[in-house]
Structures are given as structure tokens and as C-alpha cells.
Amino acid sequence: MTALQVIELFAGNNPDGEPVVERLQVSVNEDNSCQLVRSPVFIKGIASGDYIKVDKETQQFELVKRSGNLAVRIFCREDSTGLSDKLTPRLEKLGGELDLETARVLVYSIHVSCGFDKIEEILNSVCDGANSVWYYGNVYDPKDGQTPLNWWQDVLKPE
């Protein structure tokens, strides 16, 4: 088994124009590709289990292979503990995992085969009115935030 390492990826610029990086735990493979251990908070387009190759100079990445996991990011105006207590058991019943919990952020990974409708029903019922907002981290094109990437069509295609 490969030891876990931490990499830094460019996440964007802060309001002052300074670069922001996110530190992610990965398993590094023999071909120097990295498999994400958890879904990121700020890096768009990837999720837990995905394989990426990283340019160490620019801290940019290239997606090598998708795991089929959706990254779900929830941002809270208040402490997220109560929300996590309600949401986590319901997503775990679908096979989802809580990747990160901080005072104001929750990040989950859940396989796309669970279905967008089921996942969104849970998120909307628990997050609605809870001073929080949720987003998919790897469903829409990071360039515009609106165009579906449609990668799940290949994952869900019957063999």
C-alpha cells in the first residue's frame, strides 16, 4: 500500500488577487498520478477517488480518471454540527462519506449511481432553511459553473 502524501493545488485567487492553494491528501502511484483520498472544498472538477496528475510548478492538475464519486460541498452561516448530525446518517445510507467537517463547511463524497434525484432530495430537505447552501464540486464546468460536465453518462452506461 502506498503511503499517503499531501499535495497543494491552485484553488483560485482571493479578493486581493493573491493565489490560494488547497492542501489535499493523496495516494501517489508508480506513474506519479495521484488518487484523491477526500473530495476537496475549493478545487472544482474532482472528487474523492479520482486520479490526477499534478504540475508541481503551477499547482495545476490534469484529470486522469474519474472514480464516479460526486463531491458535495455545503457552506454554513452558523456552526455545521447540527446540520451534519441530520445529513450524515442519511447520506451514509446511500453509501456516502463525510470527507470534511469544519465549523462552517461539510464535504461529502457519494457515488453518482445513487442518483441525482435521491441525493438532491436529501440535501434540499435538510439544508433548506438551515442557513446553508450546497453545491456539487464536480458536476459543472469550472470555467462557467453552469455547463454540465456529463462525465456520469459514461459511469452509468450499462455494460
List descriptors.
about 160 residues, 2 domains, 4-stranded antiparallel beta sheet, globular, 9 strands, Alpha-Beta Plaits, alpha+beta, single chain
| Major sheet | 5 strands, antiparallel
Number of domains: 2
Order of helices and strands: EEEEEEHEEHEH
> Helical proportion?
10-25%
* Second-tier CATH architecture of the largest domain: 2-Layer Sandwich
Q: What value does the Rg take, in angstroms?
A: 16 Å
User: Total helix count?
Assistant: 3
Assembly state here? Answer: single chain
Q: Could you name the ranges where pLDDT drops below 50 across 5 or more consecutive residues? A: none
Residue-averaged pLDDT: 93
The CATH class label of the largest domain is Alpha Beta
Note the beta-strand portion: 35-45%
> How far is it from the N-terminal to the C-terminal residue, by CA?
30 Å
The CATH superfamily of the largest domain turns out to be ACT domain
Class derived from helix and strand content: alpha+beta
CATH topology of the largest domain: Alpha-Beta Plaits
Write down how many β-strands occur, each being a DSSP E stretch of 2 or more residues.
Answer: 9
General form: globular
The strand order across the widest sheet is: 1-2-3-4-5
Protein name: DUF4265 domain-containing protein
Pfam families: DUF4265 (PF14085)
InterPro entries: DUF4265
Organism: Microbulbifer okhotskensis
